[in-house]
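Retro notes
What went well: the complex prediction finally ran end to end.
Inputs used:
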Amino acid sequence: MTHSSGVLDVDSIRAQFPILHQQIDGKPLVYLDNAATTQKPQAVIQALTDFYTQCNANVHRGAHHLSDEATRRYERARDCVAGFIHAGNRKEVVWTSGTTESINIVANGMAQRLQSGDEVLVTQMEHHANLVTWQQACLRSGATLKVAPILDNGALDTDAFTELLNEKTKFVALPHVSNALGTINPVKALSAQAKSVGALVLIDGAQGVAHGNVNVCDIGCDFYAFSGHKLFGPTGIGVLWGKEEVLQNWPVWQTGGEMIAKVTYECSTWGELPNRLEAGTPNIAGAIGLAAAIDWFTGLDCDAIQAHEKALMASALEQADAFDGLKVIGNAPNKIGVLSFILQGTHPADVGFILDRQGIAIRTGDHCAQPLMRRLDVPGTARASFSVYNTLAEVDALFVALKKAQSMLG
Amino acid sequence: MTLPSSEEIVEDIAFFDDWEQRYQYIIDLGKSIPPMDAQLKTDDRLVRGCQSSVWLVSDEKDGKLQFQVDSDAIIVNGLLALVMAAYNDRTPAQILDFDIDAYFNQLDLERHITPTRGNGLRAIVSKIQGIARESR
């Protein structure tokens, strides 16, 4: 990414997102649901249009110009992802439909290797995608699921995490950033601890990847999973990164075309990485769209993005603090992108309705983290989540709208 | 509970000229629904949305269906009151004849009754229609 000490030109960024320039019920759209999905810049929309208008064809098999061109753009997209996350090489980048499928590939493979007496360690802040997958892998294999608790402020209890690691721990799965609370986990230190007992490590990067500077080699994990649509790319495309030496013998996931080497009626042999984990016609347009998103994102000033996101969060926290009756859920010292809260005496769903009528898009509910909500003893939260194109004025608008919600619901 | 009829509600809501008054009316309706006994709120009566939860209890009296509803969210409760105005104390045939989508359209609240909404309202409507079908 570009580095400088400049200030992010949010106006010119916003100008590149056609969807942001609309009114909802006569009020300007304030989109604060970025942890659910980010909006798409014109560059991504154009890349999808270009693909379908210029070179749509299936990849890796056509004996014609269009297929060659589609394959070139599709495989270039893989190089783009590999560079973006600092993968060891391009074979380590497997296309999936999203974070959920990425984790399922790993959990299903692991379920074939786990045995009774083995342990899998996750955290109390998991999204269901990184919890139910491991719970089911344990149920199938007879292994035991262990859950590292969080502290009351929403940070991981790293002492408890360390204590739960032992020679029975075969796998550790944890989020880079919590989708419900915004907590940033110290993934490098935690990965090192997990590796020291011989466990494989997966980082759920769904919420981590859009904040820049992901370096999978530096983290030291074995797997990193993320979705394109939370990174300004299309839906239906995601990535499973895995270390080559781990992935090359990983149990195959789906079988069919593309992923085989030799097929007879009696048996089949599998192809090389990455194709052995990519059965069927891939999401070609999605991969190309994701590369366009990464090109766009890496063209921004990385330091300026982080400074801008920090400023948005600081303003949100300051206004939340001053807001009588508003309780922030998740006060980990190291957090990004997400303000989860409840307005005391109201239900989050009601707050969401009243905000929606004022043009403000947030998410309410359990955030696909029901056990976490139970741990925090809330029915759910209202969650505002920020991205590069949000402005300080939009944070102000959120709190003005919340005042209205409080007075109507009180 | 004494609720306005569905016709009265349509008239009342048409009278308001902005969303704020309309939602305040729904909030007030929601508050007027008597809370359901805690012991009735069992899992088999729970319709879970990912945003809010709704409980439904049904009974039949003199060929008419009686419903009790409750939600943990007040606006959902108000929307449930609108549904109750249409469905409570009606015969199964009346329930099945009632065009709930047109009703919510008239109220300019159709966004709440779409299947995409995680508030359990559509699920409650389907459940009530199912009960009516079985009771015919």
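What we learned: Helices of chain B lie at 6-15, 19-32, 74-87, 92-97, 100-106, 110-113, 121-135.
What to try next: split runs per interface for comparison.
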